[in-house]
Amino acid sequence: MTDIPIVVMGLMGAGKSTVARLLADALGRPMRDSDADLQAKYGTTAAAMAADVGADELHAREALVLRDALADRPAPVIAAAASTVEDVETRRALAPAFVVFLDGPPEVLAERMKSSPHRPHFKPDLVRMLTEMRDLRLPGFREVADLVVDASAHGPEEIAAIVLANLDGAKTS
Questions:
Q1: DSSP 79
Q2: Which pairs count as long-range contacts for 138-141, CB under 8 Å and 24+ apart, including other chains?
Q3: pLDDT in tens, the chain (173 residues)
Q4: What is the pTM of this model?
Q5: Which of 59, 106, 154, 155 could form a Cys-Cys staple with 131, CB 3.0–4.6 A?
Q6: Sheet holding 98-103, edge to edge
Q7: For the chain, what is the radius of gyration of the CA atoms?
């Protein structure tokens, strides 16, 4: 299990970065985060990219940084942008990884988003935006997920413990 990436996915506000950091620390692995990778590669935030180059280009860049992170060795724990499940090539690239989908009600995630200005707000009504995103991406999340956890029912430490417990007997490469 140490030779395959662990990927934490979910909509904005699900807690991907926090859970990925806890997992990376617990497993002694490097961590990659789509937001940080975008900033490092393109010199700006996802929100600024969405405004400057549009959502489609932002999502293409998010897929690219995820595929780059999946190739890293030692295998990292990755906090991946939700948009990446829309890309067929990226879903294929996730096949050997252990993928955790952090799900949650859009109302809860919208409330969490208010404290993070680096996240793009594609619509003024965050609940509606997240509901539409969830509807669009749910089939992709279900396709790639090895584990689904309700991020509104568990805190980050509890989620990390659930993931760690489920890594036993998980995929091997």
A1: E
A2: 140/85, 140/86, 140/91, 141/9, 141/10, 141/82, 141/85, 141/101, 141/103
A3: 568 999 999 988 788 999 999 999 999 999 999 989 999 999 998 888 888 998 899 999 999 999 999 999 999 999 999 999 999 999 999 999 999 999 988 777 666 555 455 445 445 577 788 888 888 999 999 999 999 999 989 999 999 999 999 997 565 43
A4: 0.87
A5: 106
A6: 31-33, 77-79, 6-10, 98-103, 147-150
A7: 15
